[in-house]
Structures are given as structure tokens and as C-alpha cells.
Design brief:
Length: 145
């Protein structure tokens, strides 16, 4: 009976981790979708100012806290290696989004956006690779945890 309880517990932990890992990637997809109109506005229509700027950014600003919650869920369910990779995704996503808020001119924005996009893509690849390792390990445990 104890063996079955242990198996059930490991199965539930694996399911919780899988859901938490997927949520991080889902929130990234949502933020990317919210960023599309921002990028189009800055590249096709010039810089946005004032009230229009806050309207343009509202969907991005609404989506970012959901990524924070997803990263926190990964930190809670573990392991630490995944929490670290989830945090790296969040940092890269914020850098990518903030490119359009902070860069001084269009060329600098475009350069930083491309650089931050590559960094985000690499962070996501690292996250997915580690997620596979964690979820394929016995009991959904990272070999190091």
C-alpha cells in the first residue's frame, strides 16, 4: 500500500510539474501575441506617445503578471533547475518587451529586439530540454534533485 501511495504521489508531482512548465510557455505565447501590435505600431507608424501609448501597452502589461505567476508555480513545484530556467525566460521576455519602451531610436530598438528575441528563444530551448529531463526521470525528479 505504501508503494502505491509513493507511486501516486510521484505521478501527481509529475502532472503538477508538467502543467507548471507548460504554463510558462503558454504565458510567453500570450505576451508575444500582445507584443505584435506594439512592434507594428513602432515600426510602421512611428513612436506612440501619451494616452495612445498606454492603450497600446495595456495587453502586454496585463500579460506580464501571468508569466510571473507561472514562474512562481515552477519555483514551487521544482526542481530548482527548472525554477532557474523559468526565471531566465522571464528575464529574457521582459528585456524583449522593454526594448520598445526603453531604446532611444528605431535602429537601436530593432537591434536590441533581435538580440533579446534570440536570448528568449535560447532560454525557452534550455527550459524545454531541462523539462524533458525532469519529466522523463523516475518520479518526475531531475537527476540532480
Amino acid at each position: 500500500m505504501r508503494d502505491q501511495e509513493a507511486v501516486d504521489l510521484r505521478h501527481r508531482l509529475r502532472q503538477e510539474r508538467q502543467a507548471a512548465f507548460a504554463a510558462v510557455l503558454d504565458r510567453c505565447t500570450e505576451i508575444e501575441a500582445a507584443l505584435t501590435p506594439v512592434v507594428l505600431a513602432y515600426t510602421c507608424e512611428g513612436d506612440w506617445q501619451g494616452a495612445a501609448d498606454s492603450v497600446l501597452w495595456a495587453p502586454v502589461d496585463a500579460a506580464l503578471p501571468a508569466l510571473q505567476r507561472a514562474v512562481t508555480a515552477v519555483a514551487i513545484t521544482g526542481p530548482d533547475s527548472m525554477a532557474s530556467r523559468a526565471s531566465a525566460i522571464q528575464v529574457a521576455m521582459l528585456a524583449k518587451a522593454n526594448t520598445w519602451r526603453l531604446a532611444e531610436d528605431f535602429l537601436e530598438r530593432a537591434r536590441l529586439f533581435a538580440e533579446n528575441t534570440r536570448a528568449l528563444e535560447q532560454a525557452q530551448r534550455d527550459f524545454i530540454q531541462e523539462a524533458r529531463t525532469v519529466l522523463d526521470a523516475p518520479g518526475g525528479q531531475s537527476p540532480l534533485s
